[in-house]
């Protein structure tokens, strides 16, 4: 599993997703509830950027049709999305947020 730097921890605001591209994969990095999560930035329902949605209760909401995805598992909470979105392991080293997109979990 290869971790690469996604961004600096200090540039993440709580509940404000940050879109980055890692090895060609769009990723939304989210700091919430004292933790940092990385989830694929594309909704599993249609080609919509999840980082433009709102974060609440460890879920990120797709702004287009309202499905929310669990930042820990990628599972949708309800329709219209039925498939999970990939989530990725995160490591914090100093002020660096490191994400591995090579092995989806
Ligand atoms: S595009 Fe995300 S729920 Fe429809």
What does this structure look like?
The protein has 105 residues and is mainly beta. It has one domain (2-102): Rieske [2Fe-2S] iron-sulphur domain (Rieske Iron-sulfur Protein). It is 0% helix and 40% strand. The chain has no helices and ten strands. The protein has strands spanning 4-8, 18-22, 25-32, 35-40, 55-56, 59-61, 68-70, 87-88, 90-93, 96-99. The strands form three sheets. A four-stranded antiparallel β-sheet has the order 2-3-4-8, with no helix packed on it. The protein has a three-stranded antiparallel β-sheet with strand order 1-10-9, with no helix packed on it. Strands 5-6-7 form a three-stranded antiparallel β-sheet, with no helix packed on it. It is globular. The termini are close together. The model has no long low-confidence stretch (mean pLDDT 96). FE2/S2 (inorganic) cluster is lined by residues 43, 45-46, 48, 62, 64-65, 67, 80-81.
Summarize the structure.
Keywords: Dioxygenase, Oxidoreductase. The protein is mainly beta and 105 residues long.
Feature tags:
105 residues, 3-stranded antiparallel beta sheet, single chain, binds FE2/S2 (inorganic) cluster, mainly beta, Rieske Iron-sulfur Protein
Question: Care to count the β-strands?
Answer: 10
Q: Summarize the helix and strand pattern as letters.
A: EEEEEEEEEE
Distance between the termini: 11 Å
Are there runs of 5+ residues with pLDDT below 50, and where?
Answer: none
Query: Could you say what the CATH architecture is?
Result: 3-layer Sandwich
Widest β-sheet, arrangement of strands: 2-3-4-8
Portion of residues within helices: under 10%
Radius of gyration over C-alpha positions, nearest whole angstrom: 12 Å
Any idea of the CATH class?
Mainly Beta
| Class based on secondary structure composition and strand pairing | mainly beta
Q: How many DSSP helices?
A: 0
Distinct small molecules bound, one entry per kind: FE2/S2 (inorganic) cluster
InterPro entries: Rieske_2Fe-2S
Keywords: Dioxygenase, Oxidoreductase
Protein name: Bifunctional 3-phenylpropionate/cinnamic acid dioxygenase ferredoxin subunit
Organism: Streptomyces poriferorum
